[in-house]
Design a protein that fits this description.
Length: 155
């Protein structure tokens, strides 16, 4: 019982000591965001290209449902799993972005497969991708487009 009383005292102190300068707590109103977007074009025209980006969680868990972009017929969220020397892709129906979490889509891991990409999308251009989250939240990112053999861009 003694430890409980101590904990309660600590809680009261915390409340009393809350935002002495009148600032909003750091954790409040953090919105989810996306950055470091890039696309690696397929080596073979007509084959799917892959898109990557980094998601930063806001104050609540949200889930990425889908991605769209102009000049892209359709997009699917994939995970890569290695099985020995082979790797295979599985389709994900969503990516959970935990509160204050960090989720990175990268080669060898999760990525967005872009199908029916316009030939106008060439290395050196940017692709504005729209990320659609469950519940209607939308984020956009301008992804750097690189050719199949180019090194991964550094941010
Ligand atoms: Cu894929």
């Amino acid at each position: 019982m003694k430890s409980l009383r101590l904990a309660m005292a600590a809680a009261v102190l915390l409340i009393a000591g809350c935002h002495p300068s009148g600032q909003t707590p750091q954790a409040a109103n953090n919105k989810p965001s996306v950055d470091h977007g890039w696309v690696r074009l397929s080596a073979v025209p007509g084959q799917p290209s892959a898109a990557y980006f980094t998601l930063h969680g806001g104050d609540t868990l949200i889930a990425l449902d889908s991605v769209s972009a102009p000049g892209v017929g359709s997009a699917m969220i994939h995970a890569t799993q290695s099985k020995g020397a082979m790797s295979e892709m599985t389709m994900l129906d969503k990516i959970d972005l935990p509160a204050h979490g960090l989720v990175t889509l990268a080669p060898g891991g999760m990525h967005v497969m872009l199908m029916d990409v316009t030939p106008a999308l060439t290395s050196g251009t940017t692709l504005r991708m729209t990320l659609h989250f469950h519940g209607g939240e939308v984020l956009t990112t301008d992804a750097k487009v690189i050719a199949a053999g180019d090194p991964e861009p550094k941010f």
